[in-house]
Specification:
single chain, 14-stranded antiparallel beta sheet, 1 helix, 14 strands
């Protein structure tokens, strides 16, 4: 495969023409303190086997257009960000394989005081699975166009305890969903969602070293099970004990042992 990439970056937006450039040239700051960072990437790829066929395959030039923009507000302690990313793929020899992927995400970090911290993350993705990969691997003719699916994620974490105290307690809630949107005869068995609940206790034993106790449960449920197959739904329980350390801002590690049922 030969790959040729061209990167373009927007340095201004008409909507924000009155804004002030931040420290990074391609970032804008509005009068209200909102950081805006747009970009555009264009990639041109020659693929000599777009369907991953055995032996000689179908070739094509593929152009990908990838715009994105990030919005962020940051007061030094709390921050809020919103991301929009998209990718449009155009196949020169097969228009039916063209695709459009979109991703929207929001993140927030809130500290009402030095004892309470809240992190929230929400993401929605509308994606495609190219023919010859995933469910059509080794048989791209199963479908006449890419398989479409979506992923939704919600994660909330609450931490109690000041950073300088001996003990800190963290509670986690995560929801994940994966849903296919076409070719249901092939894809419906793979639709599922999961809910994760966890708690972690950190106890500072010495400078930059913590003992960690972690307990969590994850509930996984599938939308569809064939009548003659076993039920694939499951509940997973995990308990871990370990340590983590931070030698510097770039050197850190952890070790955990535990049981899972």
């Amino acid at each position: 495969m030969k790959v040729f990439n061209v990167n373009l970056y927007w340095f201004s937006l008409a909507l924000l023409s009155d804004g002030v450039f931040a420290y990074i040239p391609d970032t804008h700051i509005t009068d209200g303190g909102l950081f805006v960072k747009p970009s555009l990437e264009i990639g041109v790829v020659y693929d000599d086997n777009i369907y991953n066929e055995q032996g000689r395959g179908t070739s094509s030039v593929i152009m990908a257009v990838m715009p994105s923009v990030n919005f962020k507000m940051d007061d030094g302690i709390n921050y809020y960000s919103f991301d929009m990313n998209a990718e449009k793929g155009i196949y020169e020899t097969s228009g039916s394989d063209n695709y459009t992927d979109v991703e929207l995400g929001m993140n927030a970090h809130i500290e009402p005081n030095d004892t309470h911290r809240i992190d929230v993350s929400v993401k929605g993705e509308w994606l495609t699975e190219s023919r010859g990969t995933g469910k059509t691997e080794e048989d791209f003719e199963k479908t006449d166009e890419p398989i479409l699916y979506g992923k939704n994620t919600l994660a909330i974490a609450y931490e109690y305890g000041a950073k300088q105290t001996k003990g800190r307690l963290v509670f986690d809630l995560q929801y994940y969903e994966k849903k296919y949107r076409n070719f249901y005869a092939i894809t419906r068995r793979s639709n599922y969602d999961s809910v994760f609940l966890g708690s972690t206790f950190y106890y500072s034993t010495r400078a930059h070293t913590d003992t960690v106790i972690e307990v969590n449960v994850e509930k996984i449920g599938y939308d569809y099970n064939d009548p003659d197959e076993f039920n694939r739904d499951s509940d997973v329980y995990t308990a871990l004990l370990g340590m983590q350390w931070e030698a510097s801002s770039i050197l850190h590690g952890f070790i955990k042992i535990g049981v899972q049922a």
